[in-house]
Amino acid sequence: xxxxxxxxxxxxxxxxxxxxxxxxxxxxxxxxxxxxxxxxxxxxxxxxxxxxxxxxxxxxxxxxxxxxxxxxxxxxxxxxxxxxxxxxxxxxxxxxxxxxxxxxxxxxxxxxxxxxxxxxxxxxxxxxxxxxxxxxxxxxxxxxxxxxxxxxxxxxxxxxxxxxxxxxxxxxxxxxxxxxxxxxxxxxxxxxxxxxxxxxxxxxxxxxxxxxxxxxxxxxxxxxxxxxxxxxxxxxxxxxxxxxxxxxxxxxxxxxxxxxxxxxxxxxxxxxxxxxxxxxxxxxxxxxxxxxxxxxxxxxxxxxxxxxxxxxxxxxxxxxxxxxxxxxxxxxxxxxxxxxxxxxxxxxxxxxxxxxxxxxxxxxxxxxxxxxxxxxxxxxxxxxxxxxxxxxxxxxxxxxxxxxxxxxxxxxxx
Length: 414
Ligand SMILES: Cc1ncc(COP(=O)(O)O)c(C=O)c1O
Hints:
By secondary structure, this protein is α/β, with parallel strands linked by helices. It has two domains: 42-275, Type I PLP-dependent aspartate aminotransferase-like (Major domain) (Aspartate Aminotransferase, domain 2, 3-Layer(aba) Sandwich); 286-409, Aspartate Aminotransferase, domain 1 (Alpha-Beta Complex), CATH 3.90.1150. The chain has 18 helices and 13 strands. It has helices at residues 4-9, 11-25, 39-45, 67-84, 96-107, 125-128, 133-137, 154-164, 182-191, 204-208, 242-256, 262-275, 278-300, 319-323, 327-337, 364-368, 373-388, 393-409; strands at residues 28-29, 88-90, 113-117, 139-143, 168-172, 195-199, 221-225, 236-240, 304-305, 314-318, 339-340, 342-344, 358-362. Strands 2-8-7-6-5-3-4 form a seven-stranded mixed β-sheet, sandwiched between helices. It has a four-stranded antiparallel β-sheet with strand order 9-10-13-12. Helix 17 (373-388) runs antiparallel to helix 18. The longest helix has 23 residues, at 278-300. Bound molecules: pyridoxal-5'-phosphate. Pyridoxal-5'-phosphate (PLP) binds next to helix 5.
């Protein structure tokens, strides 16, 4: 990637960016949430749209000379509506957590009850964690997975909802590898007269491509990040029914944020356009095929996957129970060979959060590089050898060479 001006002006920073580019080129990214945007998105993000202030929404700006900016933001909104069949879309939230905050703050009163998939069960911090505003301001009630099947226990959720009568139920997660039953969520929300919020930060790309059922028709509000499976700029989005549109727009501006970052909204418009093309669907189909191949190969090698399968783009791998290597040691070994992955808690994990039993893996980034089933089989093999030999430098060196060869075969940015 050319950094001509930066190199002349600030060599130190240019070199840091080059080093990070080199790292990304030569490692296979399997940390759930990380993906690679296109060159077109990078260009829009770095464009001169960053120079313009554009307080408020298209057609209602406080400052003048926003005609072109209005067109950019309106384009992003139209494309998002088409992609998700949403009645109303707000593209201004700065990220996924502020998007959730805007929804909470405007649709709930302090002290209202919220039902969430608790953090140790893979809900997100911004839904109800004790260190987050959500816990401080609202009464947070958790729901859980079934301990035996490791699947979402919808009967138990229904029972908790009917007993506690929450004002809002959140369906959303950071590490669940199975499909959610949106219809059942809607039925449960209706039975206790609750608002239904889906946070689709992880699965939005699969939903946009029609691989996972779209929750938008079932939910009152849907929030998402745009940089995970969607492969868009780092950002947030809120979709909602028309009746909440005014409240959501007010919550984002002026309540929570002020000026939107139009260069990033432009990046999003480009990415929405990419997502409307048939290649995007092919990409998402391959993401799932790759995840299922990886899961199958790991299981063939005797490694347990949570719930035994993945319907989507990620999985949790039991390194401690299957290979007697803790999540932390496994993460170090994988780092040495160039497979970027993170240790992760699983529900009912008996080990501590900083050194849990599991590793979380995902395939969207490797799939963006063009990797297919054959490469997933090789990655599974490298994974098992690296974790099993986490203290054997010569085996780790050999695996590092295999990862470098794969990266060279599938370059990131030409
Ligand atoms: C389900 C879910 N919601 C929200 C977020 C927060 O997104 P952001 O990091 O953009 O604030 C994440 C991030 O990992 C997530 O997994």
